Amino acid sequence: MRVLVIPDLHAPCIAGSSCDCCGNALDFVRSVQDYWQTTKTVFLGDLVDHHRISKHESEPDSKGALDEYEESLEQLRPWYQHFRKATMLTGNHDALVHRQAASAGLPAKYIRTLKDFLELPKGWDVVERWGHHELDNVLYFHGDCGPGGQGIPAYRHAMLHFKSVVQGHYHQSCGIQHFQNSSGGRLWGMQAGALACSRHLQMRYGRKFSRSPIMACAVVIDGEPFVEVMP
Known about the structure:
Strand order of the largest sheet: 4-3-2-1-10-11
Strand content: 15-25%
Number of domains: 1
Helix content: 10-25%
Structural class: alpha/beta
Mean pLDDT: 93
Number of helices: 5
Shape: globular
Number of strands: 11
CATH class: Alpha Beta
Low-confidence stretches: none
Radius of gyration: 17 Å
């Protein structure tokens, strides 16, 4: 199985769609897809940023919630057109509509589904928040559950599950860490970076950190991991 792994996009902050300081994320991902001839696609979550409805303080100069939503869909449509079939994990930002509704005491039945309001293609499957997707004995998580911290959090997640793990969420983390025991059992954890422009106004919160996001994606070929960093 040849899996293309696409990390956090945070529309409307997608690299190349929202700026001219980064390479074009979609062109980069398509080049990786062509090179590796992948047959399945997994989006690791945080497809959208939902900055204006976040539980954190919003940037005063940012657009209103509706304008942000419409710009996000405009940036995502070329991705939808290219990837007619995919699996999408629900990230903490994707879930903000339902999180805010729950805080207001509104039952989930009253709220449009993620697939509906993001106008996802019919061929996309959505994994609920904190859930996972499994292919070739490899687990795919968004990453906002389980252990965090510096380095490769996916590796610590893999040790807990006794299975190899791929995840996003930690924009500054990108790479692979392997483990093998004396009996020959082997597993690994892989962080896939992010594809959101760190200079976008809505990403300003990250500027206080000395580490910057790493623009990248990943592939998993027959259960073996490879990271592709965007030039």
